[in-house]
Amino acid sequence: MKKQTILFLFFILVSSLGFSQKNTYFGGELAMTGDVFDMNDPCGLLTSTNLITGYWGFSVGQEINRNLLIETGFFIKYYDVGYGYSSGFGNVGFSSNAFDSRQIPVRLKARFNLLKDRLFLTTTVGYHFGFNYDYGDDYGSGGSETIIGNDTVNMSYTVRALSKDFSLIETGVGLEFALFDGFIVSLSSSYYAGLKKIYQMDITRKDADCISTDSYGISKGSYWSVAFGVKYAVSNLWKKK
Questions:
Q1: DSSP code of 208?
Q2: What band does 17 get if pLDDT is binned at 50, 70 and 90?
Q3: Cβ atoms within 10 Å of 97's Cβ, excluding its own
Q4: CA 50: distance to chain centroid?
Q5: Within a 10 A sphere around the Cβ of 98, how many other Cβ atoms?
Q6: Does domain 2-239 have CATH number 2.40.160.20?
Q7: Do 165 and 132 form a contact (C-beta atoms < 8 A)?
Q8: What share of the chain is helix, strand, coil (3-state, %, to 5)?
Q9: How far apart are alpha carbons 67 and 217 in whole angstroms?
């Protein structure tokens, strides 16, 4: 984590020295996210369920030219774990918090002017270094008993970590609105693809038709997001001097 912090500070220094005639931005982001958690159940009863979480944090961006920006930052992302199954009342979902992560992105953003330098389309590609902040802690266990028709389904689970750090590849698209000199608000959507397995839920399920100790759900840290952001061209503060 120290290496990533040093790189982040180095980025800020380079921004202030090497691009003094370009805009440097500081801002914040708040997002709703949906975690991707894949289920494997030999009995065919368990499925994935909606895992709606979120992230928040701040970013620092540096213009390379009028239409291209490089960006980094620091984000706190919450991950959930869970499963779904069919019951007599339709699909039922269970979820709980898995762990909290810290993520440092390096993003490249392209901007396309849609309306009089006020409305811009943006595209984003980037790499995120992720750190499992709760690694080593007890992820917990639990279970449930559900009556489906004349049958009773019993399930128990444990959650375990597979990796302390992880990587994500981001691709996204969004809109930026320039409200006044140097102040921008944005709305964007991204998908973050994980590269290795980072946590797993082991599930034992039992009913009249099937008993399985090999069911599990697994995550590579992948998720989608819908984010709202604000940023300001802090370089205006020294350009006006």
A1: S
A2: very low
A3: 16
A4: 14
A5: 26
A6: yes
A7: yes
A8: 10, 70, 20
A9: 42
